[in-house]
Automatic annotation (TrEMBL):
Keyword Hydrolase in annotation: yes
Protein name per its UniProtKB record: Dihydroorotase
Cofactor note: Binds 2 Zn(2+) ions per subunit.
The encoding gene: pyrC
Family matches, as HAMAP family: PyrC_classI_B
Functional description taken from the UniProt entry: Catalyzes the reversible cyclization of carbamoyl aspartate to dihydroorotate.
Protein's pathway: Pyrimidine metabolism; UMP biosynthesis via de novo pathway; (S)-dihydroorotate from bicarbonate: step 3/3
Length: 430
């Protein structure tokens, strides 16, 4: 199997675009070179596909280290197949899925099941996380060694914070001894108790209880101290507050092994933007203040925040119709992430295209030690072709995801992925 992508606009080491021809063989990039004439597929033998990418950007496939695929147990929200297709449509080629399934991914059997289903879907690379504690109940640690052996790439109780410091410390010490990462949903339940949105004007206006910033930052601070004590690689999920960012920045400065991620919605929306009691604006962490949004943007720019993730969290329309107080937290993310960030930050002139692409490819690959995420000979032929000029309105009805729960419906965006390639094979194309 050979793939040739001709006329590809690729970002070079200086972050500038140049036109190249990318050749891949047996799932691996062979060559990236300047070529004058359109290669003739016939000249390479029958098993060759040539794509003319004239006028389009070709990047390493996007990597999303925080997603919810819902299978097993919540197939009415999403399956590994529909989630993988949604990811492919958003330009993602590698995704790491959270263990808050039913049953929770806390046994080697469920890790294997997720890997099998992903294999059957045959689309993107799916990397499973396993739970830190049994059934994500925050009490008894799972069997980290067995879960690692089954293919888990890290440990997290995402969906809920690990409430007890001793449990987190034990988890970190064990993960460190196995060379594994602890990925933490940071939330102190005692400060949250049933609040559906962030503290702020919106909560006040609608008489809702507010989630304070400290509920996140207290866990971040606690865990940084525990990471220092245990030496583990500690990764903070969906960071959303100025205070957490301050703590992470200081920890990085003194050499503690901490990394973090941010979601597009926390870079683009504040609690002031919530139009009304529509649960498509309800997610965890909640939309916070404008100050927090600006802190997230600046931290992604200076590298304090390492990467962008979607926290793709599909729920059914029926579940989201239960109203702001009762509906589950979460919004879908795969199919809008790149166009949102490209339109709002790159086309507007605040970020370079190179920075955005790195935060969605090379940076997550570096943090999690993945071989993907770079355009060079020997790397996996996981590639995304993007039409930066293409302009389109977000239409949730067209999502490949089962989830329609997005606050971005109707937004007019530029920079849509048009072809996604995994291991040299086109897995999605417009
Ligand atoms: N982010 C969310 O709002 N929801 C996630 C859980 C989580 O990421 O904490 C979910 O599983 O629905
Ligand atoms: Zn979470
Ligand atoms: Zn999540």
């Amino acid at each position: 199997m050979r793939l040739i992508i001709h006329n590809a606009s690729v970002l070079n080491d200086e972050g500038q675009l140049e036109i190249k021809t990318i050749t891949a063989e047996d799932g691996v990039i062979k060559q990236i070179a300047a070529m004058d004439s359109v290669p003739d597929a016939g000249a390479f033998g029958e098993d060759t596909r040539v794509i003319d990418a004239a006028g389009k950007l070709v990047t390493p496939g996007f990597i999303d280290m925080h997603v919810h695929l819902r299978e097993p147990g919540f197939e009415h929200k999403e399956t590994i197949e529909t989630g993988s297709r949604s990811a492919a449509k958003g330009g993602y080629t590698t995704i790491a899925c959270m263990p808050n399934t039913k049953p929770v991914t806390d046994s080697p059997e469920i890790v294997s099941l997720v890997l099998e289903k992903a294999q059957e879907a045959g689309l993107v690379n799916v990397l499973p996380y396993a739970a830190i504690t049994k059934n994500e109940q925050g009490r008894e640690l799972t069997d980290f060694a067995a879960l690692k052996a089954a293919g888990a790439i890290g440990f997290t109780d995402d969906g809920v914070g690990v409430q007890t410091a001793q449990t987190m410390k034990d988890a970190m010490a064990l993960a460190a001894s196995l060379g594994m990462t602890i990925i933490a949903h940071c939330e102190d339940n005692s400060l949250v108790e049933g609040a559906p949105v962030a503290e702020g004007e919106f909560a006040k206006r609608h008489g809702l209880k507010g989630i304070p910033n400290e509920s996140e930052a207290i866990h971040v601070g606690r865990d940084i101290l525990l990471a220092e004590a245990t030496g583990v690689h500690y990764h903070v999920c969906h960071v959303s507050t100025e205070q957490s960012i301050r703590l992470i920045r200081q920890a990085k400065e003194i050499g503690i092994n901490v990394t973090t991620e941010v979601c597009p919605h926390h870079l683009l929306l504040s609690e002031e933007d919530i139009p009304g009691l529509d649960a498509n604006w309800k997610m965890n962490p909640p939309l916070r203040s404008k100050r927090d949004v600006e802190a997230c943007i600046q931290a992604l720019e200076d590298g304090t925040i390492d990467m962008v993730v979607t926290d793709h969290a599909p729920h059914s329309a029926e579940e989201k119709a239960r109203g702001m107080q009762l509906a589950p937290f979460g919004i879908v993310g795969f199919e809008t992430a790149f166009p949102l960030l490209y339109t709002k930050f790159v086309a507007s002139g605040r970020w370079s295209l190179d920075m955005l692409v790195k935060r969605m490819t090379a940076d997550p690959a570096r943090v999690f030690g993945l071989s993907a995420g770079r355009l060079e000979a020997g790397a996996p032929a996981d590639l995304t072709i993007v039409d930066l000029e293409k302009e389109k309105e977000v239409n949730p009805e067209e999502f490949a995801s089962k989830g329609r729960n997005t606050p971005f419906g109707g937004w007019k965006l530029k920079g849509w992925p048009v072809t996604t390639i995994v291991a040299g094979k086109v897995i999605w194309s417009e």
